[in-house]
Amino acid sequence: MNQKIQTVLFDLDGTLLDTAPDLANALNAVLRLNRQPALPFERIRPAVSHGGQALIELGFKLGPDHPGFAPLKKQLLDYYQSHIAEQTTLFPGMSEVLDSIEQRDVNWGVVTNKPAWLTEPLMDALDLTRRAATIVSGDTLDERKPHPAQLLHACKVVGSNPDSCLYIGDAQRDIEAGHNAGMSTLVAMFGYLLTEDEPETWGATALIQHPSDILNWIG
Hints:
Strand order of the largest sheet: 5-4-1-6-7-8
CATH superfamily of the largest domain: HAD superfamily/HAD-like
Order of helices and strands: EEHHHHEHEHEHEHEE
Number of helices: 8
CATH topology of the largest domain: Rossmann fold
Shape: globular
Number of domains: 2
CATH class of the largest domain: Alpha Beta
Radius of gyration: 17 Å
Strand content: 5-15%
């Protein structure tokens, strides 16, 4: 890595935070509400990084063009908002990583496709808002990942050049967005990868197995 990293940017679900328990509970609550059988956590977890649409498609086998899709997605997100941080935590080891980043005088932030009305209360509930140098949600701009605009906006807010930023995510669109923004990128292999994912083909700077591996890339 040629230039010292000044800013570390995280995807939210499946990278910084283990949100799968609360999102799985929300999906199963909506399934039961609609007289459908609940799904095992192991089936739901890989879909979490892909948002509410992916969860409804998984649970109800409906696409976005189905007339029943939008009401079900609203039920899901309303339930999730009401139970947003009951079981969500930082991934094991991530608290120490954030402490170490801050001790190194490097700033950090979040760039997520999750809408602000869910991102902000979640970050608040875990007392992370005051520590983050920037939080860019899925509706902060018109564009979303894999477009690089969110990441470039985050750079502008914190005053760092893209080539001194590191972006970490667990989905192909995260790595594409980081690459398109001119950043170094890491795949969080501890996140919510689908069985058919091939992260070694995404063009990331590296694949990491544990949050502590991030510190090796800060310099």
